[in-house]
Design brief:
Elements: E1 2-14, E2 19-20, E3 23-24, E4 29-31, H1 39-51, H2 57-60, H3 74-86, E5 89-99, H4 109-120, E6 127-132, H5 138-141, E7 145-156
Parallel strand pairs: 5-6
Antiparallel strand pairs: 1-4, 1-7, 2-3, 5-7
Helix pairs in contact: 1-3
The protein binds magnesium ion.
Length: 160
């Protein structure tokens, strides 16, 4: 069994779509970034890569590469799933925390879990998404950014 951790933070900006775990969430601001700014997907990708000691999302998809400008984070999740399969691993579980002062994420966590589980071909019950606020503290608490942490558990393919 292997365990990996991923972290990401993106600034919130007016006029951007808010995407978390590839799910669009209605909000007055969205996450800024070279790609679509989906901090949760990026944290999940880094957790999966980390469990395999396979580098990080920035090495795989440098933000200096114009091909990734505005890229949907689905392609990063697909790549992480592909690499895991190639290396003989199965993503068995994801646990993630989304720290956002707003919006409230509770109505969307199931949809997000369904989406993330789909990329790795695992049951939705094996993806845990938890929304938290930062109690008004720091840039996240002031509503200027959303930060995400994810932990991925990987098993050798074929093992339960
Ligand atoms: Mg990112």
């Amino acid at each position: 069994m292997r365990v990996g951790i991923g972290y990401d933070i993106h600034r919130l900006k007016k006029g951007r779509r808010l995407l978390l775990g590839t799910v669009e969430i209605p909000f007055e601001k969205g996450l800024e970034g070279h790609s679509d700014g989906d901090a949760l997907s990026h944290a999940v990708v880094d957790a999966v890569l980390g469990a395999m000691s396979a580098g990080d999302i920035g090495q795989l998809f440098p933000d200096t590469d114009k091909r990734h400008l505005g890229a949907p984070s689905a392609i990063f999740l697909e790549a992480a799933a592909r690499i895991a399969k190639k290396k003989g691993f199965r993503v068995a579980h994801i646990d993630a925390v989304v720290v956002a002062e707003a919006p409230k994420l509770a109505p969307y966590v199931t949809k997000i879990a369904v989406s993330i589980a789909g990329f790795f071909g695992m049951p939705t019950a094996n993806v845990s998404i938890k929304g938290k606020t930062n109690e008004g503290l720091g840039p996240v608490g002031e509503g200027r950014a959303i930060a995400c942490t994810a932990v991925a558990t990987l098993m050798p393919s074929g093992k339960r």
